[in-house]
Amino acid sequence: MTGTTGRVALVTGASSGIGAATARLLAARGMRVVVNYLRNVTAADEVVAGIEAAGGQAMAVQADVREAAAVESMVKQVKAAWGGIDVLVHNALIPYVVKPFHDMTWNELGGKLDAEMRAAFAVTKAVLPAMTEQGWGRIIYLGTGLSHHPREGMIALGTAKAALVQFARYLAQELGPRGITVNVVEPGPVEDTRMAKNVLDEKHRQRQVAATPMGRLAHPDDVAQAVAFYAGEDNAFMTGTTAAVNGGMSMY
């Protein structure tokens, strides 16, 4: 096996946006890609068809990543077809409310925290046995710059993703001796994603662009490039790190 050719990558929430861009890029680099989706089978099938038309290998698999049994079933399906999963890109966006703390219930804040970590826990548990057995693995979680730089109304998302980042660091420490790296990619606002459409009106978008030294917001492909680096053979010694993909909007 040379490079990443033949490696199996699971991308959660891969039917659109960052997940779809990541699936396409990993496939273009020779990985066999599992396009996980929750509801939109048509969009997931389109991603798979595009990958196959370009000469790559992909399969669409439905699973709610918040449900451990569904995740286990998905991983078993992949194992039957292709063997163990070598690369996990956990991108699935868990729903959250946009509102100030003053108006928020514990179920809205605590529910997001619980669902965020439940999903990360489930997908990570499911892929670790195969990675451990072969002494090689790559785990990448999608975070958000809002974990470091608060914005009005985004306390549920920012707090939950901050927990995810710390979870990743602890895993990086524990899994390093097994040959498994664990890293986080934190995009700023990204064009053409469900999250951007939910929280960015045009006035807010222009303000974000003005605050970005690169003069534009990120595209899904920009984020996918960072994920693909972390997923590859070339990343042999970076673990427990966070890559900010925000065009210099915030620097940390």
Task: Walk me through what this model shows.
There is one protein chain. The chain is of the alpha/beta class. The chain has a single domain (8-245), classed as NAD(P)-binding Rossmann-like Domain (Rossmann fold, 3-Layer(aba) Sandwich), CATH 3.40.50. The chain is 46% helix and 15% strand. The protein has a seven-stranded parallel β-sheet with strand order 3-2-1-4-5-6-7, sandwiched between helices. The longest helix is centred in the middle third of the chain and has 29 residues, at 106-134. The N and C termini lie far apart (37 Å). It is an enzyme of class 1 (oxidoreductase). It comes from Nonomuraea helvata. This is SDR family NAD(P)-dependent oxidoreductase.
Strand and helix map with partners:
Blueprint: E1 8-11, H1 17-28, E2 32-37, H2 41-53, E3 57-62, H3 68-82, E4 87-90, H4 106-134, E5 137-142, H5 155-175, E6 180-187, H6 194-199, H7 202-210, H8 220-231, E7 242-245
Parallel strand pairs: 1-2, 1-4, 2-3, 4-5, 5-6, 6-7
Helix pairs in contact: 1-2, 1-8, 3-4, 4-5
EC number: 1.1.1.-
Family: Belongs to the short-chain dehydrogenases/reductases (SDR) family.
InterPro entries: NAD(P)-bd_dom_sf, SDR, SDR_fam
